[in-house]
Structure formats: C-alpha cells, structure tokens
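Hi team,

Filling in the usual template for the complex we talked about on Friday. All components are listed, including any nucleic acid strands or ligand strings, so the model treats them as one assembly.

SUBMITTER: L.P.
PURPOSE: interface mapping
COMPONENTS: two
RESIDUES: 550
SEQUENCES:
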Amino acid sequence: MAAHNLFPVALSSPHKNIAPLPVPDSKPAAGEALAVFWTEFQQHNEHGLYKIYHELYDNLYHYGISVVLDQQMVKEAINDVFVELWKKREQLIVPDHIPNYIFICFKRRLSKLLGKEHKRSAKYAGQLFQEPEEQSYEAVLIGMEADTQLRHKMEKVLAQLTARQKEFIRLRFYENMSMEEISLKTSASVRTIYNTLHTAMVQLRRILSFFSLTLLWYLVK
Amino acid sequence: MNLQAFMAEDFMLNESFVRYCLQSNDEDVAFWNDWIARNPHKRPETEKAREWVLRLGVRLNASEKQEEFSKLRAMIETDRVQGKRRKSYLPYVAAAAMFAGAVVGAWLWKKQPRTEHSAAMAYTTYHADSARKQVILADGSTVILNCNSTLKVPASFNQQERHLILQGEALYDVQKDDKRPFTVTAGQATVQVLGTVFKVRAYLFENNVQVSLLSGKVNVAADNAATALLPGQMVKTSRGGLIAGTFDAARESDWRSGRLLFKDASLQEIANLLEYWYGVKVHVAPRNYQAIHFNGQFMNKSLSEVIASITYITNLKINISGNELFINQ
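RESULT (copied from the run log):
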C-alpha cells in the first residue's frame, strides 16, 4: 500500500517492505534543519536529538504500527533507536538523508524485537524470521482497538463504508493530505471529496456515540 | 462559516482543526485552544472530533507522546551521568585543570565541554546555545559567552601564551599577565589584550566582526589594518580593514548584568534587540503592522521565555528555526 509516496531518492532499498516515510511537507527546509540538529547532538547537545525525535515521531509510529500492530512495542522501539543514536554519537557520520537513516535503524530494531517475540511463541518455532509485512490501513484501524467489542464495531462500520470513502479517509487523515492534494491525486473535485468524507464522518459518529452508549451501559452495570 | 453550528464531523473536515489536533501549526493550536475555552458548550463535539482525527490518523495524542518523550529523556540523562564518570578517568593533562576551573556554573552539569584529541591542535570547545554561559579560564580570566556562540580554548592555553578562538559573541574580563599575551581570533580579526574588559561579536549571519572596549586597552588587527582601542571605543571589520564606531555603553552594561530592557519598543526595535541580545538572525515579514509599544524587563531569561512574553502581549507571531527567528503578525 501507499507505494506512491516512496522516496524517489537515496533510499535504494532492496526490500519491498520499506515503507514511505513522508517528510512533513509543511516544512520545506526540514532536511537542512535536521542536519543542524544532527550536528548539535553529535556535539553532545541532547536537545538536537530531541528535535529530530519530535520531527519524526509520527512517521516512525505510523510505520511501526502498520508492521506490528502493537503500540507498546512500537513506542519502545522508537525510544531504543534514539538512545542508541545518542550513545553512538561520536562514531556517527552525518547521513545523506537523516529520516531514511533513522527509519532503517528503526526497522532493524523492530525486526529484532519481533524476532524475540517469535522465538517465544511456538507458532513460529523452527521458522526463520521473515521481513515484517505491512498491514493495510483497514487492518491497522481494526487492530488498534484493544477491546474486542470495539474491534467488531470498527470492523462493521468500515464494512459499511464504500471503497471510495475509505480511500479518502486514508488520504486525508492517515497520509495527512489536504483536500486539494487529494483532489489532484484522485481527480475528484474538492466538493465531492468534502461531501463523501462528510457522509462517512456522520456514519462514524453514529457508531462512536453507540460506542459511548455501550461503554456507559457497562459502567452502569 | 458558522463554527457554532459545527458538529464533530464538521470539525474533522476543517483543515485548521486537524492541524490543531496534530499540533503541526502553532497558530491553529492557539486559535482552537482559545476558541474552545470561549465555547465550552462545544467541547464534547470538538473532543469527539479530535479523538477521531487521531484514531483515523493512527497517531498518539499529545500526553501519550509527552510520556514517551519523558522516558527517552530519562534514559539519556542516565547515560550522560554514566558517560561523565567514565570520562573523568581519561588523562586530561592541561585540559583537565582548565576544565576543573571552569566547573563553576550550574550549566556545566548539563553541558560538557569537549576536548578534541589531535596532536598539534587540541581544543576544549565551549558552546552556548539557548542560554549564555560563563567560562572561567585557567589564568583566572572570565568569559561570558553569548547565545549561539562557540569558544575554543587550545590545550596549550596559559603555557606560553593565552589564545582563544571565537565564533559568535563574548565578553572578556582578562587577568593582567605581561608575560603571557592574551589574544582572541574571531573571523578576520585578531584582538590583542593587555588586562582589560572587552567584547567581540562575530556571528556568521553578520558579515563583520565588532570589538568593543569597556576598560583597559586592546590592539585590534584585521587582514590589512591595525589599531589600538581606548575605553568606550568600538571598531568593526570591513573588507579586510577596520572602521571606527561607538557603542551604547548603557546597553552593554545591561547586557553584562543580564538585564534585557524593552522601553516603548517598536517592532523594529524588538527585532534589533533580540538579534543583538541572543545572537540570532531576525527576519520581519513585510506587512502593515499595527504600531507596537512594548515594555518589559527580563533578568537572565532565555530567548524562548522572552518570546513567550512578547507574543502574549503584542499578538505578534514569532517562530524559531535553528539560529533564525521569524516575526509575523
């Protein structure tokens, strides 16, 4: 999924699974700023590292979740990567493309954590560790709900939405594209996108209030 | 657009509202925080919308993110403390003595100067980023290093001579010692000192070096000019030569005491003063601004604290990006 957003540069990954890591498009100078932060933390100023962390957190989290569907593991892996960068700050060079570099570190870290899990579970015993598969957006949305009941509801409401509605939702909220950008990409008019999304949101909201009601019902009980 | 009639789905489809949820734009965050505070009856709808924006975007909310960040910070702080212990066993020779002398201010708990080990040129580098730093040198001289400035002290400092390399701005209070001349190199200029208080300003975003003498005597040399300064005088470099000027003694003495004073300051004066004080390049977006009269006094405050006050009072928008500052309205 989402292969359209792949970086055209530098990554040259042999793995089909390297996910797109969109640099926040609202900041055109993000690359240069990151390089400045990188030098800062290499000069023992941890604030440089923190700035990179805030800059990339959402993107890393997205990719992580789509691979492991486990919030806890993803959060842990992101922090591990940054602690590791800090410890090795003196040996590091300035990478050509900082987001990609960190992204690859993150991917390795996830693989390692996943490997540990797999060793523990009998299901995977005797099986070599495989490249993590990325889940579809729908699977992520459903899988993210911890509560079984809510997961079913989510499944249900997504099943009610049309493919077009789901595509627009993914582009608008997950990929964080503006309505204009979606319009350019899908050649639907902004008006159509707006209306389609609006109908979808109303449907979602009905389910949400239903969620709250069931929750209340549980509490009262 | 009647925000009062908005339901959750309408908020979700408002791009500014989504930027508020993602906290990707300060203006939007400020606007919606303010709007929701003034319209508490809409809070259930905005909360619902925010929850859905984050859920559909598969994102952590601000407090979850903050929690993760605190964990990271704790781990890095721990590593710092351990790293410091490990390093103290290294044979530091001259740098160690100097370092010990410099471990005075509380800032040193946070920032560790770095010694580069190369045969001929070993330096201890002091860097002040968002807050100014005081460095006490091996000979007892003190240096106040302004924000965004770097001072390099060679390992051989105070042996035969006292030589420093500066980028940015610093005020020097030099101990008199006729046997060991005290010199500062900054960009194209070199200052030779004879027991004295003086200031050198050499930021990369300004294309000249300024030397101001508060008391005592200094010789200043550029590529093809040299001059001696008397107290109260200032020179700046220009195309390899030197141009004489004056400086504002009151402002300089405020700077020394850490007092930043805005007195009925206009937009341009605010910009100038911030640029002068914090060593950042300030850009003012061209626009028709309402007249601003800003008054305020700050004692040893960081740039971000000062900006917070200014933006709160004047409604200006100020963004920091690296060593640059952008003012908008």
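MY TAKE: Residues 153 and 208 of chain A are 9 Å apart (CA to CA). Chain A touches chain B at residues 24, 26, 29, 33, 36, 40, 43-47, 49-50, 53-54, 57-58, 61-62, 65-66, 75, 78-79, 82-83, 86-87, 140-141, 144, 169, 173-174, 176, 178-179, 194, 197-198, 201-202, 204-205, 208 (CB under 8 Å).

Thanks, L.
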